[in-house]
Amino acid sequence: MAKKASVFWYRRDLRLDDNVGLYHALKGESAVIPIFIFDTEILEKLPKTDARVGFIHQQLVKIRKKLRSDFNSDLGIYHGKPVEVFDAMSKEFSIDTVFTNHDYEPYAKQRDKEVAEFLTDKGIGFKTFKDQVIFEKSEIVKGDGKPYVVYTPFKNKWKEQFNPSVDLVEYQPDFANLLQNKRFPDCKLEDLGFQESDIEVPDFVVTKDLIQNYEDTRNFPAIKNGTSRLGPHLRFGTISARKMVKKAIAEENEVFWSELIWREFFMQILWHYPHTHKKAFKPKYDRIEWRNNEAEFEKWKNGLTGYALVDAGMRELNATGYMHNRVRMLVASFLCKHLLIDWRWGEAYFAEKLLDYDMSANVGNWQWAAGSGVDAAPYFRIFNPMTQVDKFDKQKGYINKWVPELQELSYPEKMVDHKMARERCLQVYKEAVG
Fold it and tell me: Where in the numbering of this chain does the Photolyase/cryptochrome alpha/beta domain appear (predicted)?
Protein backbone atom coordinates (compact mmCIF):
# COMPACT_ATOMS: atom_id res chain seq x y z
CA MET A 1 0.00 0.00 0.00
CA ALA A 2 1.34 3.44 -0.95
CA LYS A 3 2.19 5.85 1.85
CA LYS A 4 -0.64 8.20 2.80
CA ALA A 5 -0.46 11.63 1.15
CA SER A 6 -2.61 14.74 0.96
CA VAL A 7 -3.12 16.88 -2.12
CA PHE A 8 -3.10 20.66 -2.33
CA TRP A 9 -5.05 21.73 -5.42
CA TYR A 10 -3.97 25.10 -6.85
CA ARG A 11 -6.62 27.17 -8.65
CA ARG A 12 -6.78 30.98 -8.20
CA ASP A 13 -3.88 31.10 -5.75
CA LEU A 14 -0.67 30.67 -7.76
CA ARG A 15 1.87 31.39 -5.03
CA LEU A 16 3.75 29.62 -2.26
CA ASP A 17 3.56 32.35 0.38
CA ASP A 18 0.52 33.49 2.41
CA ASN A 19 -1.69 30.75 0.96
CA VAL A 20 -4.36 29.56 3.41
CA GLY A 21 -5.19 26.19 1.85
CA LEU A 22 -1.53 25.29 1.32
CA TYR A 23 -0.76 26.34 4.91
CA HIS A 24 -3.44 24.01 6.30
CA ALA A 25 -2.45 21.15 4.01
CA LEU A 26 1.16 21.34 5.20
CA LYS A 27 0.03 21.40 8.86
CA GLY A 28 -1.52 17.94 8.45
CA GLU A 29 0.09 14.60 9.20
CA SER A 30 0.38 13.37 5.61
CA ALA A 31 3.03 14.50 3.12
CA VAL A 32 1.57 17.01 0.65
CA ILE A 33 1.47 16.78 -3.15
CA PRO A 34 0.79 20.20 -4.74
CA ILE A 35 -1.04 19.97 -8.09
CA PHE A 36 -2.68 22.16 -10.73
CA ILE A 37 -5.31 20.92 -13.18
CA PHE A 38 -5.69 22.56 -16.59
CA ASP A 39 -9.43 21.95 -16.75
CA THR A 40 -10.50 20.93 -20.25
CA GLU A 41 -14.01 22.27 -19.56
CA ILE A 42 -12.47 25.74 -19.35
CA LEU A 43 -9.66 25.42 -21.88
CA GLU A 44 -11.80 24.20 -24.77
CA LYS A 45 -13.67 27.53 -24.80
CA LEU A 46 -10.51 29.65 -25.14
CA PRO A 47 -8.50 30.78 -28.19
CA LYS A 48 -5.28 28.80 -28.62
CA THR A 49 -3.12 31.89 -28.08
CA ASP A 50 -4.91 32.94 -24.89
CA ALA A 51 -2.36 34.97 -22.91
CA ARG A 52 -3.96 34.00 -19.59
CA VAL A 53 -3.23 30.31 -20.15
CA GLY A 54 0.37 31.23 -20.94
CA PHE A 55 0.55 33.35 -17.77
CA ILE A 56 -0.81 30.53 -15.60
CA HIS A 57 1.71 28.16 -17.17
CA GLN A 58 4.59 30.59 -16.46
CA GLN A 59 3.56 30.88 -12.80
CA LEU A 60 3.34 27.10 -12.45
CA VAL A 61 6.82 26.71 -13.93
CA LYS A 62 8.13 29.20 -11.32
CA ILE A 63 6.43 27.31 -8.49
CA ARG A 64 7.73 24.01 -9.83
CA LYS A 65 11.34 25.29 -10.05
CA LYS A 66 11.17 26.56 -6.47
CA LEU A 67 9.73 23.29 -5.15
CA ARG A 68 12.36 21.26 -6.98
CA SER A 69 15.38 23.39 -6.10
CA ASP A 70 14.56 24.30 -2.50
CA PHE A 71 12.43 21.47 -1.15
CA ASN A 72 13.25 18.35 -3.21
CA SER A 73 9.58 18.23 -4.12
CA ASP A 74 7.49 18.95 -7.20
CA LEU A 75 4.23 20.27 -8.62
CA GLY A 76 1.98 17.89 -10.50
CA ILE A 77 0.57 19.60 -13.60
CA TYR A 78 -2.43 17.73 -15.01
CA HIS A 79 -4.67 18.26 -18.05
CA GLY A 80 -8.22 16.94 -18.02
CA LYS A 81 -11.48 17.00 -16.09
CA PRO A 82 -10.89 17.36 -12.34
CA VAL A 83 -12.90 14.28 -11.32
CA GLU A 84 -10.98 12.16 -13.84
CA VAL A 85 -7.65 13.54 -12.62
CA PHE A 86 -8.48 12.70 -9.00
CA ASP A 87 -9.65 9.25 -10.06
CA ALA A 88 -6.28 8.61 -11.73
CA MET A 89 -4.35 10.06 -8.75
CA SER A 90 -6.26 7.88 -6.30
CA LYS A 91 -4.93 4.81 -8.15
CA GLU A 92 -1.32 6.04 -7.91
CA PHE A 93 -1.37 7.50 -4.38
CA SER A 94 -3.15 6.67 -1.16
CA ILE A 95 -4.82 10.06 -0.79
CA ASP A 96 -5.94 11.11 2.64
CA THR A 97 -7.41 14.58 1.99
CA VAL A 98 -7.62 17.12 -0.84
CA PHE A 99 -7.09 20.71 0.30
CA THR A 100 -7.92 23.77 -1.79
CA ASN A 101 -9.16 27.37 -1.54
CA HIS A 102 -12.73 28.55 -2.18
CA ASP A 103 -13.84 29.62 -5.62
CA TYR A 104 -17.11 31.51 -5.97
CA GLU A 105 -18.10 31.44 -9.64
CA PRO A 106 -21.09 29.32 -10.76
CA TYR A 107 -19.02 26.81 -12.74
CA ALA A 108 -16.47 26.48 -9.92
CA LYS A 109 -19.21 25.83 -7.35
CA GLN A 110 -20.68 23.05 -9.50
CA ARG A 111 -17.24 21.57 -10.23
CA ASP A 112 -16.33 21.53 -6.53
CA LYS A 113 -19.63 19.89 -5.64
CA GLU A 114 -18.91 17.08 -8.12
CA VAL A 115 -15.32 16.69 -6.90
CA ALA A 116 -16.45 16.61 -3.25
CA GLU A 117 -19.03 13.90 -4.00
CA PHE A 118 -16.48 11.83 -5.91
CA LEU A 119 -13.86 12.10 -3.16
CA THR A 120 -16.38 11.30 -0.43
CA ASP A 121 -17.35 8.11 -2.27
CA LYS A 122 -13.64 7.19 -2.30
CA GLY A 123 -13.28 7.89 1.43
CA ILE A 124 -11.11 10.94 0.73
CA GLY A 125 -11.59 14.21 2.63
CA PHE A 126 -12.17 17.53 0.83
CA LYS A 127 -11.34 20.72 2.72
CA THR A 128 -11.61 24.23 1.28
CA PHE A 129 -10.59 27.58 2.75
CA LYS A 130 -11.18 31.31 2.33
CA ASP A 131 -8.11 32.82 0.66
CA GLN A 132 -8.76 35.25 -2.19
CA VAL A 133 -10.83 37.73 -0.17
CA ILE A 134 -10.99 39.22 3.31
CA PHE A 135 -14.75 38.61 3.61
CA GLU A 136 -16.86 36.17 1.60
CA LYS A 137 -20.33 34.75 1.04
CA SER A 138 -22.58 35.93 3.91
CA GLU A 139 -19.91 37.38 6.19
CA ILE A 140 -20.94 40.95 5.34
CA VAL A 141 -24.74 41.16 5.37
CA LYS A 142 -27.46 43.48 6.63
CA GLY A 143 -29.02 43.12 10.08
CA ASP A 144 -31.77 40.93 8.63
CA GLY A 145 -29.22 38.59 7.04
CA LYS A 146 -29.88 39.77 3.49
CA PRO A 147 -26.95 40.69 1.23
CA TYR A 148 -26.07 44.29 0.49
CA VAL A 149 -26.86 45.40 -3.04
CA VAL A 150 -25.51 48.94 -2.68
CA TYR A 151 -21.77 49.42 -2.41
CA THR A 152 -21.37 52.18 0.19
CA PRO A 153 -23.30 50.44 3.01
CA PHE A 154 -21.42 47.23 2.15
CA LYS A 155 -18.09 49.07 2.41
CA ASN A 156 -19.07 50.66 5.73
CA LYS A 157 -20.08 47.30 7.22
CA TRP A 158 -16.91 45.71 5.78
CA LYS A 159 -14.75 48.30 7.56
CA GLU A 160 -16.78 48.06 10.76
CA GLN A 161 -16.26 44.29 10.87
CA PHE A 162 -12.62 44.39 9.73
CA ASN A 163 -10.04 43.45 12.37
CA PRO A 164 -6.44 43.64 11.06
CA SER A 165 -5.04 41.37 13.78
CA VAL A 166 -7.44 38.61 12.65
CA ASP A 167 -8.16 39.34 9.00
CA LEU A 168 -4.60 40.14 7.90
CA VAL A 169 -2.81 37.20 9.48
CA GLU A 170 -0.21 35.86 7.02
CA TYR A 171 -0.32 32.13 6.41
CA GLN A 172 3.28 31.09 5.86
CA PRO A 173 3.48 27.36 5.15
CA ASP A 174 6.02 24.96 6.65
CA PHE A 175 7.40 23.28 3.55
CA ALA A 176 9.02 20.44 5.50
CA ASN A 177 5.87 18.39 4.97
CA LEU A 178 5.98 18.37 1.16
CA LEU A 179 6.19 14.98 -0.52
CA GLN A 180 9.89 14.30 -1.19
CA ASN A 181 11.73 12.64 -4.05
CA LYS A 182 8.84 12.67 -6.50
CA ARG A 183 9.11 14.06 -10.02
CA PHE A 184 6.05 14.64 -12.19
CA PRO A 185 6.22 14.75 -16.00
CA ASP A 186 6.86 18.16 -17.52
CA CYS A 187 3.87 19.82 -19.15
CA LYS A 188 4.56 22.30 -21.92
CA LEU A 189 2.09 24.85 -23.22
CA GLU A 190 2.01 22.94 -26.51
CA ASP A 191 0.98 19.79 -24.64
CA LEU A 192 -2.21 21.64 -23.68
CA GLY A 193 -2.90 22.58 -27.29
CA PHE A 194 -1.88 26.22 -26.72
CA GLN A 195 0.93 28.43 -27.91
CA GLU A 196 2.71 31.53 -26.64
CA SER A 197 0.74 34.76 -27.01
CA ASP A 198 2.20 38.04 -28.22
CA ILE A 199 0.51 39.61 -25.19
CA GLU A 200 2.24 39.46 -21.82
CA VAL A 201 0.83 40.06 -18.36
CA PRO A 202 2.78 43.02 -16.93
CA ASP A 203 4.09 43.04 -13.38
CA PHE A 204 1.98 44.98 -10.93
CA VAL A 205 3.13 48.37 -9.65
CA VAL A 206 2.20 48.98 -6.03
CA THR A 207 4.78 51.52 -4.89
CA LYS A 208 4.32 53.99 -2.05
CA ASP A 209 4.05 56.83 -4.59
CA LEU A 210 1.39 55.06 -6.65
CA ILE A 211 -0.83 54.42 -3.63
CA GLN A 212 -0.39 57.91 -2.19
CA ASN A 213 -1.15 59.58 -5.54
CA TYR A 214 -3.82 57.09 -6.55
CA GLU A 215 -6.86 59.39 -6.52
CA ASP A 216 -4.94 62.00 -8.55
CA THR A 217 -3.77 59.63 -11.28
CA ARG A 218 -6.23 56.74 -11.58
CA ASN A 219 -8.75 58.50 -13.86
CA PHE A 220 -6.33 59.62 -16.55
CA PRO A 221 -5.41 56.91 -19.06
CA ALA A 222 -2.45 58.82 -20.52
CA ILE A 223 -0.56 58.70 -17.21
CA LYS A 224 1.98 55.91 -17.23
CA ASN A 225 1.75 53.76 -14.08
CA GLY A 226 -1.26 55.74 -12.89
CA THR A 227 -2.92 52.46 -11.96
CA SER A 228 -1.51 49.37 -10.26
CA ARG A 229 -2.08 46.66 -12.93
CA LEU A 230 -2.97 44.42 -9.99
CA GLY A 231 -6.01 42.88 -11.71
CA PRO A 232 -4.52 39.70 -13.23
CA HIS A 233 -2.36 39.10 -10.14
CA LEU A 234 -5.35 39.21 -7.79
CA ARG A 235 -7.37 37.18 -10.30
CA PHE A 236 -4.83 34.36 -10.44
CA GLY A 237 -3.54 34.80 -6.92
CA THR A 238 0.12 35.54 -7.61
CA ILE A 239 -0.24 38.07 -4.77
CA SER A 240 -2.48 37.69 -1.73
CA ALA A 241 -5.40 40.05 -1.15
CA ARG A 242 -4.33 40.33 2.50
CA LYS A 243 -0.97 41.83 1.51
CA MET A 244 -2.65 44.39 -0.74
CA VAL A 245 -5.11 45.48 1.96
CA LYS A 246 -2.18 45.75 4.37
CA LYS A 247 -0.39 48.05 1.90
CA ALA A 248 -3.47 50.24 1.45
CA ILE A 249 -3.78 50.63 5.22
CA ALA A 250 -0.07 51.30 5.68
CA GLU A 251 -0.21 54.17 3.16
CA GLU A 252 -3.56 55.36 4.59
CA ASN A 253 -5.16 55.55 1.17
CA GLU A 254 -8.94 55.18 1.33
CA VAL A 255 -9.45 55.21 -2.46
CA PHE A 256 -7.02 52.35 -3.11
CA TRP A 257 -8.52 50.40 -0.23
CA SER A 258 -12.04 51.02 -1.57
CA GLU A 259 -11.08 49.52 -4.93
CA LEU A 260 -10.12 46.29 -3.15
CA ILE A 261 -13.45 46.29 -1.31
CA TRP A 262 -15.34 46.80 -4.62
CA ARG A 263 -13.81 43.53 -5.78
CA GLU A 264 -15.32 41.71 -2.77
CA PHE A 265 -18.67 43.49 -3.19
CA PHE A 266 -19.06 42.10 -6.71
CA MET A 267 -17.91 38.64 -5.58
CA GLN A 268 -20.60 38.43 -2.92
CA ILE A 269 -23.21 39.67 -5.41
CA LEU A 270 -22.32 36.83 -7.80
CA TRP A 271 -22.34 34.37 -4.88
CA HIS A 272 -25.84 35.40 -3.73
CA TYR A 273 -27.24 36.04 -7.22
CA PRO A 274 -25.50 33.56 -9.55
CA HIS A 275 -28.13 34.15 -12.27
CA THR A 276 -26.71 37.65 -12.83
CA HIS A 277 -23.97 36.40 -15.14
CA LYS A 278 -26.74 35.64 -17.65
CA LYS A 279 -29.71 37.76 -16.61
CA ALA A 280 -30.26 41.33 -15.43
CA PHE A 281 -30.20 41.80 -11.67
CA LYS A 282 -33.27 44.01 -12.14
CA PRO A 283 -35.56 41.71 -14.20
CA LYS A 284 -37.42 44.51 -15.98
CA TYR A 285 -34.18 45.38 -17.80
CA ASP A 286 -34.38 42.06 -19.62
CA ARG A 287 -37.37 43.60 -21.44
CA ILE A 288 -35.13 46.06 -23.31
CA GLU A 289 -35.48 45.72 -27.09
CA TRP A 290 -31.79 45.62 -28.00
CA ARG A 291 -30.94 46.45 -31.61
CA ASN A 292 -27.97 44.01 -31.61
CA ASN A 293 -26.64 45.12 -34.99
CA GLU A 294 -23.72 42.78 -35.75
CA ALA A 295 -21.96 45.17 -38.16
CA GLU A 296 -22.01 47.89 -35.51
CA PHE A 297 -20.73 45.42 -32.91
CA GLU A 298 -17.77 44.66 -35.18
CA LYS A 299 -16.96 48.36 -35.49
CA TRP A 300 -17.08 48.71 -31.71
CA LYS A 301 -14.86 45.65 -31.21
CA ASN A 302 -12.25 46.92 -33.65
CA GLY A 303 -12.15 50.51 -32.45
CA LEU A 304 -13.75 51.99 -35.57
CA THR A 305 -16.70 53.89 -34.10
CA GLY A 306 -15.43 57.35 -35.01
CA TYR A 307 -15.39 58.34 -31.33
CA ALA A 308 -11.70 58.65 -30.48
CA LEU A 309 -11.73 57.74 -26.78
CA VAL A 310 -13.99 54.73 -27.38
CA ASP A 311 -11.75 53.58 -30.23
CA ALA A 312 -8.56 54.09 -28.21
CA GLY A 313 -9.93 51.90 -25.44
CA MET A 314 -10.95 49.07 -27.72
CA ARG A 315 -7.62 49.15 -29.56
CA GLU A 316 -5.72 49.10 -26.28
CA LEU A 317 -7.77 46.07 -25.20
CA ASN A 318 -7.18 44.19 -28.46
CA ALA A 319 -3.44 44.91 -28.46
CA THR A 320 -2.62 44.43 -24.77
CA GLY A 321 -5.43 42.58 -22.98
CA TYR A 322 -5.87 45.64 -20.77
CA MET A 323 -8.07 48.73 -20.83
CA HIS A 324 -7.93 51.65 -18.43
CA ASN A 325 -10.86 51.45 -16.01
CA ARG A 326 -12.18 54.94 -16.76
CA VAL A 327 -12.28 54.06 -20.45
CA ARG A 328 -13.97 50.72 -19.73
CA MET A 329 -16.96 52.64 -18.35
CA LEU A 330 -17.20 54.72 -21.51
CA VAL A 331 -16.91 51.89 -24.04
CA ALA A 332 -19.47 49.82 -22.10
CA SER A 333 -21.91 52.70 -21.92
CA PHE A 334 -21.40 53.42 -25.62
CA LEU A 335 -22.18 49.83 -26.61
CA CYS A 336 -25.30 49.52 -24.45
CA LYS A 337 -26.74 52.99 -24.81
CA HIS A 338 -25.47 54.54 -28.04
CA LEU A 339 -25.69 51.32 -30.05
CA LEU A 340 -28.35 49.51 -27.99
CA ILE A 341 -26.38 46.28 -28.05
CA ASP A 342 -27.00 43.81 -25.24
CA TRP A 343 -24.53 44.15 -22.36
CA ARG A 344 -23.99 40.37 -22.49
CA TRP A 345 -22.33 40.76 -25.92
CA GLY A 346 -19.86 43.22 -24.47
CA GLU A 347 -19.33 41.15 -21.33
CA ALA A 348 -18.50 38.09 -23.44
CA TYR A 349 -16.02 40.07 -25.56
CA PHE A 350 -14.27 41.40 -22.47
CA ALA A 351 -14.23 37.86 -21.05
CA GLU A 352 -12.34 36.73 -24.14
CA LYS A 353 -9.86 39.61 -24.16
CA LEU A 354 -9.18 40.88 -20.63
CA LEU A 355 -6.10 39.57 -18.85
CA ASP A 356 -7.75 40.45 -15.54
CA TYR A 357 -11.13 38.96 -16.47
CA ASP A 358 -13.01 38.09 -13.32
CA MET A 359 -16.64 37.11 -13.86
CA SER A 360 -18.01 38.88 -10.79
CA ALA A 361 -16.39 42.25 -11.57
CA ASN A 362 -16.96 42.03 -15.32
CA VAL A 363 -20.64 41.16 -14.98
CA GLY A 364 -21.09 43.70 -12.19
CA ASN A 365 -19.51 46.52 -14.18
CA TRP A 366 -21.32 45.70 -17.44
CA GLN A 367 -24.65 45.59 -15.64
CA TRP A 368 -23.74 48.90 -14.01
CA ALA A 369 -23.13 50.41 -17.44
CA ALA A 370 -26.40 49.01 -18.79
CA GLY A 371 -28.33 50.25 -15.75
CA SER A 372 -29.58 46.73 -15.02
CA GLY A 373 -27.38 45.74 -12.08
CA VAL A 374 -27.00 46.39 -8.37
CA ASP A 375 -26.02 49.95 -7.46
CA ALA A 376 -26.23 50.75 -11.18
CA ALA A 377 -26.03 54.03 -13.03
CA PRO A 378 -29.60 55.19 -13.79
CA TYR A 379 -30.56 54.46 -17.36
CA PHE A 380 -30.77 58.15 -18.24
CA ARG A 381 -27.09 58.61 -17.35
CA ILE A 382 -25.46 58.37 -20.78
CA PHE A 383 -21.80 59.29 -21.14
CA ASN A 384 -21.02 61.86 -23.82
CA PRO A 385 -17.93 60.41 -25.59
CA MET A 386 -16.71 63.90 -26.55
CA THR A 387 -16.93 65.58 -23.14
CA GLN A 388 -15.26 62.49 -21.63
CA VAL A 389 -12.20 63.38 -23.71
CA ASP A 390 -12.18 66.90 -22.21
CA LYS A 391 -12.42 65.47 -18.70
CA PHE A 392 -9.94 62.61 -18.88
CA ASP A 393 -7.67 62.96 -21.93
CA LYS A 394 -7.67 66.68 -22.71
CA GLN A 395 -4.14 66.65 -24.18
CA LYS A 396 -5.08 63.51 -26.17
CA GLY A 397 -1.97 61.64 -25.00
CA TYR A 398 -3.92 58.38 -24.73
CA ILE A 399 -5.94 58.93 -27.90
CA ASN A 400 -2.87 59.81 -29.99
CA LYS A 401 -1.14 56.64 -28.84
CA TRP A 402 -3.96 54.33 -29.93
CA VAL A 403 -5.63 56.34 -32.71
CA PRO A 404 -2.65 57.87 -34.56
CA GLU A 405 -4.72 58.42 -37.72
CA LEU A 406 -7.24 60.63 -35.90
CA GLN A 407 -6.62 63.64 -38.21
CA GLU A 408 -6.34 61.55 -41.37
CA LEU A 409 -9.06 61.05 -43.96
CA SER A 410 -8.85 57.32 -43.26
CA TYR A 411 -10.32 57.73 -39.75
CA PRO A 412 -14.04 56.84 -39.86
CA GLU A 413 -16.90 59.26 -39.40
CA LYS A 414 -18.84 58.94 -36.15
CA MET A 415 -20.99 55.87 -36.65
CA VAL A 416 -23.91 57.39 -34.76
CA ASP A 417 -24.89 60.92 -33.77
CA HIS A 418 -24.63 61.36 -30.01
CA LYS A 419 -27.82 63.40 -29.58
CA MET A 420 -29.90 61.05 -31.73
CA ALA A 421 -28.46 57.96 -29.98
CA ARG A 422 -29.14 59.44 -26.57
CA GLU A 423 -32.78 60.19 -27.38
CA ARG A 424 -33.25 56.76 -28.96
CA CYS A 425 -31.79 55.08 -25.88
CA LEU A 426 -34.02 57.02 -23.50
CA GLN A 427 -37.08 56.07 -25.53
CA VAL A 428 -36.21 52.35 -25.74
CA TYR A 429 -35.32 52.12 -22.03
CA LYS A 430 -38.41 54.03 -20.99
CA GLU A 431 -40.66 51.68 -22.97
CA ALA A 432 -39.00 48.68 -21.29
CA VAL A 433 -38.64 49.78 -17.69
CA GLY A 434 -41.03 52.69 -17.29
Answer: 4-134
Beta bridge partners of residue 134, listed in sequence order: none
Nearest Cα neighbor of 415 from 270, 296, 319 is 296
Which stretch of 227-236, 240-249, 372-381 has the lowest confidence by average pLDDT? 372-381
Instruction: Kindly report the number of other CB atoms within 10 A of residue 185's CB atom.
Output: 9
Q: What is the pTM of this model?
A: 0.95
Give the C-alpha separation, 118 to 208, whole Å: 47
Alpha-carbon distances, residue 26 vs 100, 122, 175, 286 (angstroms): 12, 22, 7, 48
Distance CA 330, CA 369 (A): 8
Beta strands in 325-392 (DSSP E): none
Statement: residue 217 has pLDDT above 90: no
Range 375-379 average pLDDT: 76
155, 375 in Cβ contact below 8 A?
Answer: no
Q: How far is CA 191 from CA 32, 124, 374, in A?
A: 25, 29, 42
Domains of the chain: 1-131 (3.40.50.620), 132-168+205-272 (1.25.40.80), 276-429 (1.10.579.10)
**Which residues lie across from 127 on neighbouring strands?**
99
